[in-house]
Design brief:
The chain has about 230 residues and is α+β, with helices and mostly antiparallel strands. The chain folds into two domains: about 110 residues, predicted glycosyltransferase like domains (Thrombin, subunit H, Beta Barrel); about 100 residues, predicted glycosyltransferase like domains (Thrombin, subunit H), CATH 2.40.10. Helices cover about 20% and strands about 40% of the residues. The strands form two sheets. A six-stranded antiparallel barrel has the order 2-3-4-7-6-5. Strands 9-10-11-14-13-12 form a six-stranded antiparallel β-barrel. The protein is elongated.
């Protein structure tokens, strides 16, 4: 569970949240959110110190139209931009709500800044984005000794699965990277900001984030071209 907490992507989003500890309560905004935890903005009056391990109560309003979540959390650390919390004793239903909202917001990053009009769909519906098998050259912007170069396995307008060499030191899940995708019949590769979504034994799955409209249209055209091209 600890490893899952660290590697699940967080999404930056400002949601209403109230925090209560030792009889004190303040209403603030979230800084980022994952199914396992949340970072909340520092209280307006400042001056509060919450040591790591402090148990607190939070009330989080999710943008899915359902009632707020009342959760127990513990302080992980305090940063300049907020207090990082991990959820404790999370009920299965609460976890699924959190995961569905985070996944939906991450998916919407491809269309621009994450919007709060979240439509939570079953996982099987979220997987219906057009995807095509393709072997294109791909590389990640990284310093030595990393050599993140390989071939795509399949591609959609919103993400890609990549096969890397067995010796490659792969980025961990949740890592933001910029990739260079070689596009057929074009001199310049596509430069796309991405996030590592899942690592598999022989491949790595990434989702595209902060796509511009032009990039998204190019990717859609590319997927359509690859789907219709002769095998």
């Amino acid at each position: 569970m600890g490893r899952d907490r660290r590697r699940y992507p967080r999404v930056g989003v400002a949601l209403d949240i109230s925090v209560e500890v030792a009889g004190r309560r303040w209403d603030v905004k979230t800084v980022d959110l994952s199914p396992y935890g949340v970072k909340v903005a520092l209280p307006p009056n400042g001056g509060i110190k919450l040591p790591s391990g402090t148990a607190i109560q939070v009330r989080l309003l999710l943008p899915d139209g359902a009632p707020p979540l009342a959760l127990t959390a513990r302080v992980v650390r305090t940063d300049r931009d907020g207090i990082a919390l991990c959820f404790e004793h999370l009920e299965a239903g609460y976890f699924e709500r959190l995961k569905a909202v985070v996944d939906s917001l991450l998916g919407r990053l491809a269309e621009g800044p994450a919007r709060l009009e979240v439509s939570v769909k079953p996982a099987r519906e979220r997987r219906k984005v057009p995807r095509t098998d393709a072997q294109l050259d791909i590389a990640f912007d990284a310093e030595k000794p990393y050599d993140w170069r390989g071939k795509t396995i399949n591609l959609s307008p919103y993400g890609v699965k990549v096969a890397l060499s067995a010796s490659a030191i792969r980025p961990s899940e949740g890592t933001s990277v910029k990739l260079q995708l070689t596009v057929p019949d074009r001199a310049d590769p596509l430069s796309i900001k991405s996030m590592v979504w899942r690592r598999e034994p022989k491949s790595t799955v990434l989702i595209f984030i902060e796509l511009g409209r032009e990039q998204l249209e190019r990717l859609k055209d590319l997927v359509e071209l690859l789907q219709t091209a002769p095998a």
